Amino acid sequence: MIHIHPLSDVQSNNIDENTHIWQYCVVLKNAIIGKNCNICAHVFIENDVKIGDNVTIKSGVQLWDGVVVENNVFIGPNVTFTNDLYPRSKKYPEKFEKTFLKKGCSIGANSTILAGVEIGEYALIGAGSVVTKNIPANTVWYGNPAELKGYITKEEIIKKYNIDD
Fold this sequence. Notes:
Layout: E1 3-4, E2 9-10, E3 20-21, E4 26-27, E5 32-33, E6 38-39, E7 44-45, E8 50-51, E9 56-57, E10 62-63, E11 67-69, E12 74-75, E13 80-81, E14 99-101, E15 106-107, E16 112-113, E17 118-119, E18 124-125, E19 130-131, E20 139-142, E21 147-151, H1 154-161
Parallel strand pairs: 1-3, 2-4, 3-6, 4-7, 5-8, 6-9, 7-10, 8-11, 9-12, 11-14, 12-15, 13-16, 14-17, 15-18, 16-19, 18-20
Antiparallel strand pairs: 20-21
């Protein structure tokens, strides 16, 4: 069963079972959303966006064309994504940059993720960070610009947060 709040505008038919989409969300028709996801209020999901299973997207997030979210990813409130490195009004690139959030990564509230980066498996991005380059798997980054602050294993994350792989 899919739960879509009546105050949302969900145009996509590509939404898997047990996903909840809360009020004031907009999901465009070509977006793909996996099973057991929680899409909180005030989220916008554009056409060329793919979201895996068991993903949480907190309020105030916009996922623009080119964002790929793998399974078990957490995106905190008001995380900002970009998809155009040189934006100009009424000037569009031939294609938008791809941004990849790999399995199990977590992005803290109010972080900004620049277009074209990859955030590795189980990486953690601290709240308020600005990510300007690729983030390796199992690392902890925060700051502006985000800097490497430590390492975390997949096993530590699973134990601490009691999640399934």
